[in-house]
Amino acid sequence: MRKIFVFLIAVFLCAPAGALSVINDTEAEKVLHKIITPVALAADIPENRLKIHIVNDDDFNAFVSGGEDVFIYTGLLTRIKNTNALQAVVAHELGHMIGGHMQQMSARMDAEMKRTMIIQALGIGLMVAGGNSSLGAGVLAGAGGIAQQSLLSFSRDEERVADDFAVDLLVRANVNPAGLIDVFEQMQNITGAAEAKINKNRTNHPLTAERIKNAGMKISQIKHNGKYKTYDDKEYELVRAKLIGYLYTERQILDKYPYRATDDAAIYARAIGNMRGGALTAARDATQDLIQRNKKNPYYYELLGDIEYQMGHYDDAVVAYERALKLDKNAPQIQTALALVLAERGKPGDNAQAIELCKTSLLAMPAPLTYWVLAKLYNDGREYWALAEFYNMNGDAKKATRFAKRAQQKLAKDSPEYIKAGDILEK
Ligand SMILES: [Zn+2]
Known about the structure:
Elements: H1 2-13, E1 20-24, H2 26-42, E2 51-55, E3 62-65, E4 69-73, H3 74-77, H4 83-98, H5 107-115, E5 117-121, H6 124-129, H7 133-139, H8 146-150, H9 156-172, H10 178-196, H11 208-220, H12 234-247, H13 250-256, H14 264-276, H15 280-293, H16 298-310, H17 314-327, H18 332-345, H19 350-364, H20 368-377, H21 382-393, H22 397-410, H23 416-426
Parallel strand pairs: 1-5, 2-4
Antiparallel strand pairs: 1-2, 3-4
Bound molecules: zinc ion (ZN).
C-alpha cells in the first residue's frame, strides 16, 4: 500500500503545466454518452465515434474538438440543472463545429491538447494515490481555464450562429430546445455580476440577455408538435453527486447534500465524502443502504469495493467488484480496480486473473492506471513496456523512452510488447 502511495503522488504532482486534466469513470461516461448521443446523431456524428471527455476544471464550460471529441467541464456538470440543459450545451458547442468556427483551432493544436491530457480515475485510482481527503483534493485540482484562454474565443456573431444551430440540432434530436434558455439563465446567475461591469461594445461574447432573446425568437419559429422526448434525470443526478463527492470538500458536500436530504444522490455524495475523509464505516453503511434500495446499480457495488479495499478487506472488495462487473460487463475502470485488488491480495490464480482483466480493460479504454497495475503484475520484462505506456500516457516522454528501451532489451523481438515499445520510441 505504501509503495503505491508514494509512486502515484510522484506521478500526479509532476503533471506538465497547462495539461488538460481528464477524469475517467465508467458510470459518468456511460450516463453522459446516453444523454449526448441523440444530439450527436443529429449532428451526423456516429454513436461509435462520439468521445466524451470529462475535464476536471471548475469553469462552467464545454467544447468540441476534432469533430467528435466532446469535452465537458466538471464545473458545468456539477452545476447544470438537468439532462435537457446539458444536451443544450453540447448542441451549442456542436453548433460551433457545424458553423465552421473551429478553423482557428488547427489540427496541431488539437493534437497538442490530447498529448497533454492527464487522465485520472475516480474511486480506487484516487484512493491509491491518496487515501486521505487533503491529498485527494490536491490531486484533483483542475487545470484552470486552459481551453477558454487558448481555444475558445468566438465572436458575437459566431455565438449567435451556434445558438441557432443548437436549436435546430435539439429539435432534430427530438429534445426540447427550451433547455438552451435554461442554460443561459444559469449562466446569467453565474456571470451576471461580472457582465454588468463589461462595456457591451468591447466584449466578444454576446451578453447573456441578448442570447436569451435571440434563442427565444428562434425557438418560437420552430414548427414542432411540442411532444419532445423527456429524459429521466435520476441517473444524471447520481453522476453529479459522484463528482461532487469526489471533487468538493467535505463542507461543500454537506452544503449541497445536507443530512436531511435522504434521496439516493445525497446518500451517494455523502458516502463518497465519508470515504475520502476516512470515515469508512459510515461510508460502508451508507453504500449498503443504497444497495438495499437498488440491487441492480453496478456502481454502488463499485463504491462498496473501493471502501472495502480501503478497509483492507480484500476478499470483500473482490466480491463487490465482481458483483459490479456482473451487472456492467463493459466497465474498464471497475476491471482495473478489481485487478489492482487481486494484485495486492496475491492468492493463487489472482495474478493471472488480474492480467486478463487489465487486458480487457485496455481494449475498451487505455488508461494510465491500468498500465501501472499491469506493470505490477508482470515480471518477465513486459513490466517495462507497461511502465513505458504509463509514462507515455502521462506525457512524460523521458521516462517513457527510458522504459521502452529497457523493455526492448528484455523482450523477444517478435513479441507484441517489443513492437509496442518500438511505437513509443518512434514518437
Ligand atoms: Zn459558444
